[in-house]
Amino acid sequence: GNTWLMLKIYLDIKEKKLFKDFLFTSLMPENNFESFQFLYIQKSLEKLSVELLEVFLYICIFPSNIEIKYFNQNFYTNTLTLAENLFLFEVEDETYTVNGYMKNIALLELAKSHIVADLMKKIKINNKQPIKLTLQQQIQKYEFLHEKIPFFAPYIIKLSNAYNESGSHYSARTILKDSLLDVRLNEKGRKLIYKQLAQFCNTFEDVKKLIEELEYADDEKMNKLIFNSYLSKSKTYEESQVIFEKMKQSKVPIGKFAYTMLVKRTENFEQAYQLFQEMKINKIPIANLAIKIILKRTENFIQAQNFFKELKNDANIHISINNINLYLYKAKTFEQATEVFNEMKAMQIEPDATFYNHYLNKTETFEQATVVFNEMKTFLPEIPIANYNYYLNKTETFEQATVVFNEMKTSFSEISILNYNIYLNKTETFKQATEVFNEIKLVGIKSDIITYNTYLNKTETFEQAEAIFNELKALFVKADEYTFFTYLGKCQTFAQTEKVFNEMKSMQVQPNMDNYYIYLQKTLNLTQAKKIFNEMKENNIQPNLKSYCLYLNKANDFTEAKNIIEEMKENNIKPNEVIYNIYINKIQTFKEAEYVYMKYLQQFPLIKGNYKSEKNYNYLFPALLKKVRTLQDFWYVEDELKRLDFKINDYTRKIYTRVQRRVGAK
């Protein structure tokens, strides 16, 4: 923990003498470890050049899952985001060691330092990867450190991990077991070693064997620790329950951690809530993490509301803003979200930025979003840019979006491409979109693929879309499936569509079903459609009902249409009402039409009073009437209408009257 703070101090204190004085007065070496730590810091920082110090900081900051994207101006304002993304050393019951806490603070400070800021730029430019030690280097490093301080648990664990990863499983376990015999190993270190031993167990039998081997272990405490560690490794609720029952049989004390792990493995609210009741009956303190998971498992807002009421009525349960955020997330309407907000105010809990993000997301109109946003201004001293993004998303006109976006520009020194993309999406005409796009260029922000996809979507002609696509290509912005879906949607002719598809292939973007739908729509004849159908199959895209509808539309006569219907059946795709209506329109003679009509009646009998069924019959009969050429044909249709007692709509009646006059029927 001190090491992290020393790095921060080094960045702040320019004079070496002052820095040395600080080291001596703050550390005051009393034992071997602190002397070693002190010497390490002093020698490292004195001897390293600025360039090497940058590398050193780089290694210190990036051994965990922190990503460069978190280091921006909003990063410091949200410690929750930071805590969730740092690899903090968890001991038990959601408490962190001093080292973890110090690392949290130090990283916040380091992220702001000019050296790290410059380093971030270099990393972006050079696209460097974090420096990693090989397994052999790790073994050498931790063997040396373990020799210096043989009773320091973190070094023992690091060394055992390196052995285990290199395949020396026996050595990994031996060093852990031997360290337990060292009387200088403190209680906390002993717990960590037991946890690590449990992590190396693959089956429950391995855990039992481990407990038997460690005869010198404190059965109650250490067995509980090993079982808890093993429980945390389980992957399903069933696995966890087996371990849980074994713990009960072995009379191992079951505490908050074990119950929380079991709650974590639950698959539904019923299972999670049952454990919650069990914890209350057994007077087990309920961890905040357990509450969070149970709230996540609720299946609807009413369930979440009832569970939350139960939490409020229990004086032993602490309700955090994180719990309320999850409760709010379950709200489906703005009205329900407002209920949560009023509950929170009654409990005198102050909302945070995440709460307002969820609340804004639940608004149904821009007017409601404005009320929430103004309320947020009274609670939060500084509004993060992410909340502005939610507000901007709720605007209903470009004029409203412009007002919100201008406020963002005055509130923040840096506006990112993410913010501009939302604003661009709110434009209503190509002219407005072009103005926003030009502004992005003017302020020197690099457009990404989302920017170009959004801009493409705003185009009004194929020529406009083509110009934007050519710019995208010239700047080496990688197009994706959605780019081509939008671009294809702007095509007005088959030639344009074919050109875009060839472009897609040259850029090695795999077409999807949506791309092929557009391609099929633009075909001029069955030959072109058939070629596309064969290409789909070659690309392992299996034609579906919609693609067959488009394909069938290109058939020229009854024979071609019938062949397509037969192909559908061979591919186990059942023709629907739409297919049959297209089919009957492709027919030349009344006899063929009568054949399709009878098939239709068998497949889709008329359901009187059913809107969809009657609508489809009002497509079917006009198609059948159009094939009528004789009085006999007309009387057949007339008899069918009477037999079915079918009430035709205005369009069908219009066709009926026209055909009636043509054949001279009375």
Could you explain the architecture of this structure?
70% of the residues lie in helices and 1% in strands. With 666 residues, the protein is mostly helical. Helix 23 runs antiparallel to helix 24.
In short:
The protein has a two-stranded antiparallel ribbon. The chain is built from 39 helices and two strands.
Secondary-structure topology with pairs:
Blueprint: H1 2-12, H2 16-27, H3 32-47, H4 50-61, H5 79-85, E1 90-92, E2 95-96, H6 98-112, H7 114-126, H8 135-148, H9 153-165, H10 169-179, H11 187-199, H12 204-213, H13 219-233, H14 237-249, H15 256-264, H16 269-281, H17 288-297, H18 301-312, H19 321-329, H20 334-346, H21 353-362, H22 366-379, H23 385-393, H24 398-411, H25 417-425, H26 430-442, H27 449-457, H28 462-474, H29 481-489, H30 494-506, H31 513-522, H32 526-538, H33 545-552, H34 558-570, H35 577-585, H36 590-603, H37 611-625, H38 631-644, H39 650-663
- As laid out across the biggest beta sheet, the strand order is 1-2
Low-confidence stretches: 27-34, 61-105, 125-131
Principal-axes geometry comes out as: elongated
Q: Report the mean per-residue pLDDT as an integer.
A: 81
List how many beta strands DSSP finds: 2
Portion of residues in beta strands equals under 5%
Number of helices: 39
